[in-house]
Amino acid sequence: MTSLKNMEYSAFLLLLQSFLLLSSCSTSMDKKWKKLEKEYAKDGVDMKVRHAKMDSLTVNYLSVPSSKPSNRTFVFIHGAPGSASDFGKFLKEEKIRSKGNVLSVDRLGYGSASGTEYSSIALHAQSIHQVMEDWQNTTEEEQEFILIGHSYGGPIAAHACLSSKEKIIQLIMLAPAMSAELEPMKWYSRWAQSKVIYGLLSSSLKVATDEKAHHADALKEVEDDWSKISTPTIMVHGKKDSIVPFGNMEFVKKHWTAPLSTVILEKKGHIFPFTDPEIVINLVVDTVDKLDKPK
Predict the structure, then answer these.
(1) Contact (Cβ atoms closer than 8 angstroms) between residue 50 and residue 148
(2) What is the structure's pLDDT at 105?
(3) Which of 70-74, 154-158, 210-214, 288-292 has the lowest mean pLDDT?
(4) Are 188 and 9 in contact, with CB atoms under 8 Å apart?
(5) Which region holds residue 245: left if phi is over 0, alpha if psi is between -120 and 50, else beta?
(6) 239 pLDDT band (50/70/90 cuts)?
(7) Which of 124, 126, 145, 123 is nearest to 136 (CA)?
(8) Residue-wise over 258-269: b if at least 16 C-beta within 10 A, else e?
(9) Who contacts 84 (Cβ-Cβ below 8 Å, separation ≥6)?
């Protein structure tokens, strides 16, 4: 196995490990949420798990208020597999918390409405709207949102910018899976789809497997929507990404009409937000500082 494949497999295991922690059936979700809140409290962070209603569904998300008065809110959206807790480093980071409130969403099928796959990107985007609306109701103040999506969270964040009552001032996509043609089916995805292995998976991991199988079709369905986005966008991608091809950057350049900035990471792979979180922290801080500059 090449070093690149080793990196890819390690990335998969890292995301899988964090995902399994939240999908375990040993205790109720309510107890998990309370335990998670206590863990943040030990680090001096006032994190609350909140629950936004969307028709018959509930969308769970982690929320941390800004350490300084602010009506700006960052919303992190994970990929597949994944969980809201994947972004714990950023929810606790004072450099980010000093710039605004921080939310991290448990996507439908994972920590929210777990056990059922929802393949529609538009539906996932709607769930993000519900989170934003719920947060605005909680704060009782109109917010300016910055959406940050990693991997498959990228197209979901992007689609949420299309029809929003809420004020989204910036879109940041980290190694986003945007192109249907470039969406690969990796060996471990095919392995998980085998009858024997699939039968052994938890309901949540079955969702991740099913969703992955439908990624290409779901992306193709919304491909014509990308040119309608007007939200200023930043895309960051590593050239060593062996999970979501770097070619997605050229795809975005071709389909985007909104203001677009790109950042190329010459020696980074797919999970740079977790292996090198300072890249994201510095990007968020720099982005906000530019937004706050007098025009």
Answers:
(1) no
(2) 98
(3) 210-214
(4) yes
(5) beta
(6) very high
(7) 145
(8) eebeeeebeebb
(9) 22, 60, 61, 62, 76, 78, 104, 105, 106, 111
178 close to 155: Cβ distance less than 8 angstroms: yes
**Half-sphere exposure for 208 (CA within 13 Å, toward CB):** 26
How far is CA 43 from its chain centroid? Answer: 23
Q: What does the block give as tokens for 216?
A: 């290409």
Cβ atoms of 61 and 131 within 8 Å: the answer is: yes
Contact (Cβ atoms closer than 8 angstroms) between residue 185 and residue 113: no
Please count the CA atoms within 13 angstroms of the CA of 212 that sit on its side-chain side.
24
Q: Are residues 134 and 62 in contact, defined by beta-carbon separation less than 8 angstroms?
A: no
What sections of the chain are H helices per DSSP?
Answer: 3-23, 29-42, 88-92, 94-97, 121-139, 153-160, 187-193, 195-200, 203-221, 248-255, 272-275, 277-292
User: Any idea what the Cα angle at residue 160 is, between residues 158 and 164, rounded to 5°?
Assistant: 135
Q: pTM higher than 0.90 for the full model?
A: no
- Residue 165: predicted pLDDT: 80
